[in-house]
Amino acid sequence: MISMKRQTKGEFAFEIMNGILMLAICFITLYPIWYVVVNAFNDANDAMRGGIYWWPREFSLESFKAVFNSKGIMTAMGVTVAKTVLGVLVHVLFTSMVAYAFSREELYGRKLYMIIGTITMFFGGGLIPTYLLIRNLHLLDNFMVYIIPAAFSFFDLIIFMSFFREIPAGLEEAAKIDGANDFKIFLRVIIPVSMPVVATIALFHGVYQWNDYFTGMIYINNPNLQPIQTFLYRVVAQSSSNQMISAMPTGVSKNITSQSLKLATMIVTTAPIVVVYPFLQKYFVKGFMIGSIKG
Amino acid sequence: MKASSQITMESNSPNARREGWKPIFRKIYRQRYLQVMALLGIAWMIVFNYIPMYGIIIAFKEYDIISTISEAPWVGLDHFKEFLQDDALIEVIRNTLGISLIKLIVGFPLPIIFALLLNEVRSVFFKKSVQTITYLPHFLSWVVLGGILATWLSDVGVINKILLAMNVIDAPISYLAEAKYFWTIIIASDIWKELGWSAIIYLAAISGVSPELYEAATIDGAGRFQKILNITLPSIMGTISILFILAVGGVLNSNFDQILVLRNQLNASASNVIDIYVYQTGLNEGRYSYSTAVGLLKNVIALTLLIGANSVTKKLNNTSLF
Predict the structure, then answer these.
(1) Beta strands in chain B, from DSSP E residues, in sequence order
(2) Rounded to whole angstroms, how far apart are CA atoms B40 and B37?
(3) Interface pTM (ipTM) of the complex?
(4) Helix, strand or coil for residue B144?
(5) What is the residue extent of each domain of chain A?
(6) With contact defined as beta carbons under 8 Å apart, do A233 and A217 qualify?
(7) Which of B1, B176, B227, B242 has a CA that sits 20 to 30 A from residue A56's CA?
(8) Which residue ranges does UniProt annotate as crossing the membrane (chain A) (predicted)?
(9) Could you tell me how far CA A215 lies from the centroid of its own chain?
(10) Whole-angstrom distance, CA of residue B37 vs CA of residue A96
């Protein structure tokens, strides 16, 4: 309030320039995405002429219809949804459970356990030793390769721990007097009061699961177990339009091109995350603060 | 009930005769649920972190897919020597360090500046909206972003259309098919994707600065820029240091997901970074031992850099990671 009165001309000019800069950043952020959206909603053959910048010239939903009618794309979408839902559930429950045990001061061997974990943050086996492990565990071409090797993260454990430490001990004491064991306390007392951190980690891991293409690319050969991002990787990076054309449902191919199908698939793939994250924003900002204080 | 099971457990253990162990076992038994919960995590880390660490020994062996790790013959440092004499070495180092250093110089300060400027926006609604919008690209996968870039940078893409219209170029350029544009694409797209997201942590740190400091400075007659420079920036210096340590430690980590999507045969001379080289030699060419050796060398150097950066910032401004 005081500074309002004291605002000089220079500061006013700064404020205007700053506002314009922020708007420019927003435009640069959104426009490349918008461009893809309007082109995907345009008739595919017409879009090939180019020049669609702000709004579809010949509005068409054909490409999206083709995406939803393609068995290959829908199977891959199904894999992505399944791995994200199950992956998040397992990762959040397992990591938070270990984190709760690690956060209890009286845990015998706690110091050693923390050292074992901390080392994993700074050093790892690398690509090939990990690949050999996955092969020896018979996780190649196995849906569980998306879930089990991603079930735990020591970094996320630290974020959980710093949240759990803030929970008043009285809550646990009351449950203990009622005769609940530590696992029950974790499940019935700790998890329900830890929703902000659970939401944060769930979002982070959900985004990882949803967007990860590498796991599906190196560990999976069976096309029915391939997630949508791996499918798109093959289309985008290896420009395998064959893959796209083979995914096209028969009968509608006239009105779509592999390019329009690619753009529509990209949008269908991304839309769920874009819809979800603004609602979780207040949680992950908080989660970040916890992580930054005790990271 | 509880007491009796405690006794049986203790008498079954080999050390039960020694008095000193009794209280420990009793303590562990009392927290058996906690111990099981903790040990499941330890077991996971042993399998998925420590077994691959043990697997690193194939870097010193001649491992092939048919034999087991222990059967493979030892070859000492042969794979390391081979890498150091390989023609690809110079290219790989140049690309890795080149991309990382430009990212560090350009990409590291930008989120800090963005956070400082965004913090000066008065309207809460506008500020929140800018945040929500600039977080968006973080949630796109590199595959989708690769698709967007391919659309923008193609022969008939927007960039070519604009430059042609402005007479900057007279024939369309396939940007992704030429090595000389690769670094620019990589760095610009990385900044585009992560600018807003990387600023979160600084915004969080800024929001923790006590308002009294600003009030006191206002009374002393400090202007806006003076407050930014003398209060806000010093207050978030700790956060900046920690992130700088991490950035230096990660200087050998190229953004693998990003480069794997955007690289191709035509831009290989600019896109071949260590991580890609490890992937290429290991999984595509099946040179498991060699690839592991290169990866190990990289990890050791990265760890050294991290420790080095940590001790430097510790001396300079007393903040450190460990």
Answers:
(1) none
(2) 5
(3) 0.90
(4) helix
(5) 9-62, 64-289
(6) yes
(7) B176
(8) 12-34, 73-100, 112-134, 146-164, 185-208, 263-280
(9) 14
(10) 10
Contacts of A22 in chain B (CB under 8 A): 117-118, 121, 126, 130
For the segment B140-159, the average pLDDT, to the nearest whole number, is 90
What sections of chain A are H helices per DSSP? 2-6, 9-40, 44-47, 62-69, 71-103, 110-122, 127-136, 154-164, 169-177, 182-185, 191-193, 195-211, 214-219, 228-236, 241-247, 258-294
- By Cβ distance, the residue of B44, B139, B218 closest to A151 is B44
pLDDT of residue A238: 66
Are A150 and A91 a contacting pair, CB within 8 Å? yes
The domain defined by A64-289 carries CATH number 1.10.3720.10: yes
Asked if pLDDT for residue B240 goes beyond 60, the answer is yes
Query: Which positions in chain A touch B218 (Cβ < 8 Å)?
Result: 2-3, 6
| Interchain pair A107, B150: CB under 8 A | no
With a CB cutoff of 8 Å and minimum separation 6, the contacts of A121 are A154, A155
Mean pLDDT of B283-292: 95
Q: What number of C-beta contacts closer than 8 Å exist between A and B?
A: 268
CA–CA gap between residue B191 and residue B114 (Å, rounded): 12
Determine whether the interchain pair A123/B140 forms a contact, defined as Cβ–Cβ distance below 8 Å: no
Question: Above 50 in pLDDT, residue B161?
Answer: yes
A43-57, B70-84, B94-108: range with lowest mean pLDDT? A43-57
B positions 114-173 inside 8 Å of A (CB): 114, 117-118, 120-122, 126, 129-137, 139-144, 146-148, 150-152, 156, 158, 161
pLDDT mean for each 10 residues of chain A (295 residues): 59 92 97 94 87 90 91 94 98 98 94 96 93 96 98 95 89 86 94 91 94 96 95 78 61 72 93 90 74 49
The answer to whether the CB atoms of A126 and B264 lie below 8 A apart is: no
For B176-185, what is each residue's pLDDT tens digit? 989 999 999 9
